[in-house]
Amino acid sequence: MRFDNFLKQGLAxxxxxxxxxxxxxxxxxxxxxxxxxxxxIDEFSSRKIMVGFYDVLRNLLEAIAALNGxxxxxxxxxxxxxxxxxxxxxxxxxxxxxxxxxxxxxxGQLVSVEETEENINEMKEIIVFLINKYLKFxxx
Length: 140
What we know:
It is a single chain. The chain is mainly alpha-helical and 140 residues long. It has a single domain (3-139), classed as Four Helix Bundle (Hemerythrin (Met), subunit A), CATH 1.20.120. 72% of the residues lie in helices and 4% in strands. It has 6 helices and 2 strands; from the N terminus they run αβααβααα. The chain has helices at 3-8, 19-38, 46-67, 75-84, 88-107, 113-135; strands spanning 12-14, 70-72. The chain has a two-stranded antiparallel sheet with strand order 1-2. Helix 2 runs antiparallel to helix 3, helix 3 packs across helix 4 and helix 5 crosses helix 6 (113-135). It is globular and about 40 Å long.
């Protein structure tokens, strides 16, 4: 599948490039990140923290898409959008994280503290990379 398929299916659309939206999404993601980093990971919080970090990552991807003139409605479409912009490695990682998030949200799967910590470390690396490459100029 390709990102074009999601456009044809209406799961993503071409939109006006929107730096204001991108900045708002970026700032929201940064605030959420501060909250999540202050929250202790334990057997009760690990699920919510895992999903929270995923949501930060997704918000950053929405911001990048807004800068490039896209509105994306499907989490899966972000996997193919990442491929479209040349981020194949991140695309694979994001898709794996998306599936974990889906199992948590839709099937009630629990995640251990250890698994959460591993996934959060990976997401933090992706977050830093995406900010530095695509969004840093919005901080000004």
